[in-house]
Amino acid sequence: MHTRRLIAACVLGAAALTACAPAQLPPAQGTTAGGVASKKESVVRIARASAAAGDLGTAVNLYRQALAQDGNDLPLRMELASVLMKAGQAREARDILEEAETQAPDNPDILENLAEAYIYVGNSDEAVKLAESAMKKAPRAKLFGIKGVALDMQDEHDAAQEAYREGLKQFPKDDMLQTNLGMSLILQGHYDEAIKVLLEVAEGRTSFPKARQNLALAYGLKGQWDKAYALGLQDLTKEQAKENIEFYKQFVLGDSTRTLPVSSTELPSATPSPVEEPVLEENVPATKSPKPLIRFDSSSDFLK
Length: 304
Fold this sequence. Notes:
The chain is mainly α. The chain has a domain at 189-294. The chain is built from 13 helices and no strands. It is globular and about 60 Å long.
């Protein structure tokens, strides 16, 4: 099956690109260093405010204006790359980070962010290589996640799960790694094990929408639609939760041509009021190890 189209779960967000130390440049001719810095800082403040308000186009333009004054500012390049990723312009973000890597080839933050960008453009081979290289410099939970997602993209689910589990040995309470491990198990049709893994993050220490909806996916593909529906209502509208149930039913019963389930990242932040559940059938056996399709969602800010 084409594993690049499953509901967003093994996803990497662009919201947390890590900054590195800014480079120092001389002031432009005809102006003071203080004047240049003051103008740049003002532009950056407005760019950040625009990005926070969701006006990504304005933010991108303002970041570019700021970089025109100081093109070697690595943290600012990373901020621009982050906004570009959110705006769905992953290739441009990748190009910016590749240029940053030539300026600071041993910087682990740049390597990590570039590996993440490779995920978004579908270059999983480079993502794995770069993540492994960055791990040697500074092992981080996010790097194990990047490697695992890249391997899941290649249908190398056993290797992906090994990466997630190795990461969890070093970072035992990392929700991202555990959630991605659960999704990888779903991709193999190991629903019972996935449910066990996901319950800890969906209903345990730090419940959050993506983990809950991945758990709903596992229940749905196992044929336990009432549990999937109840979880869906925590983050989706009643209509969206019903649509997901219909998808699960079609998939389990052998027709996976329907539109993919709604992801919690596509919803308004407000949680809908509780509604009565529809009449759902329970414990319908799934087809033998069905593999859902995967879709990577660049709007996610899952990785913090």
